[in-house]
């Protein structure tokens, strides 16, 4: 009887130890985000992320090794595909799965193992990460002017530069959508070189004409490209706002200033001023005029022309006038020009007086003072006489 009791106790102890050992060797897992060069340490195992072979296809390369050298293997891991080493986690080894690939420099890795191996730990790379053969394209979009009015021609420049370390291929630039506030003159859509080496850049230029006023949002340029592993990448410029002002116009102010009255057979001057107080240049400026009445006042040349008068600029000139017959005369000048809104006309007038010569009264200018002096002397003489 006593022997049976001892046997039962022994069996109970064996079962208890077996269950305890089974609990100790349960399979667990840990997730880590690894950059290239980082590794996971679990027991004697080392799992290092070597490179991201393809973001598009979900392929990463890892090196799995053991401290004692019994295992040293570099393998390509397909995303979400488990890879067993030394029989996998169920057999006392480890199971590695790449669960996510963020970019060409980092991935999320799951390691499964039995608890008896200890705690999995991440070890950051001791060497600086060097991205080899990784193209990075910077994209810029710019207008050649900040102040735009309806009718203005605008030059747009798209600049793409490879600031990375690898060759960028299959480059495509999409500058969409076309803006309804502009008409596209030449060069659109922009074309960029198909491939750019590190440090190389390329530009595309196209020309637009502003046709509608208002505030608009200029969209970003989207540039897509691939690296040497055919991973598709993209970058874009920054969008920005511009204001298209109403069409600029020229405004010529025509001013006429005569030098004063003119006597018959005498000469005078008519000073003319053309001031452009508008915001656009006045071009093909032609000045013509007439005098009414048409006889009695003669102008040397009323007609004048200018190729261009810039905004804020003034053109001054003088016209010689000759008086032939006394009277009041009206000089009218008309300036025609192109000023941003088709042909325009401005008009100016001046009154000019021609005086007759009065020779018969000129002698009074000498006689009157003499008479005054003689009268004063006679008066004094009489006062002293009496």
| CATH architecture verdict of the largest domain | Sandwich
Rg over C-alpha atoms, rounded to the nearest angstrom:
49 Å
The main β sheet shows up as: 5 strands, antiparallel
Total number of helices: 2
Domain module count: 3
User: Could you estimate the helical fraction of the residues in percent?
Assistant: 10-25%
Mean pLDDT: 86
Q: How far is it from the N-terminal to the C-terminal residue, by CA?
A: 194 Å
Briefly note the CATH topology name of the largest domain.
Immunoglobulin-like
CATH class of the largest domain: Mainly Beta
Cross-sheet strand order for the largest sheet: 5-4-3-2-9
- By DSSP, the count of extended strands is 28
CATH superfamily of the largest domain: Immunoglobulins
Shape: rod-shaped
Strand fraction equals: over 45%
- Contiguous uncertain segments of 5+ residues: none
Q: Would you tell me the structural class of the helices and strands?
A: mainly beta
Order of helices and strands: HEEEEEEEEEEEEEEEEEEEEEEEEEEEEH
Short description:
The protein is mainly β and 386 residues long.
3D structure, described in words:
This protein has 386 residues and is mainly beta. It folds into three domains: 25-123, no CATH class; 137-245, Immunoglobulin-like; 252-360, Immunoglobulin-like, CATH 2.60.40. It has helices at 2-24, 364-385; strands spanning 27-35, 39-42, 45-54, 59-66, 72-78, 83-85, 94-103, 106-114, 121-123, 137-143, 148-149, 153-162, 169-174, 182-186, 201-210, 214-218, 222-226, 232-236, 240-245, 252-258, 262-263, 267-276, 282-292, 297-299, 304-309, 314-323, 327-338, 343-355. The strands form seven sheets. It has a five-stranded antiparallel β-sheet with strand order 5-4-3-2-9, with no helix packed on it. A hairpin with a 2-residue loop joins strand 7 and strand 8. The longest helix has 23 residues, at 2-24.
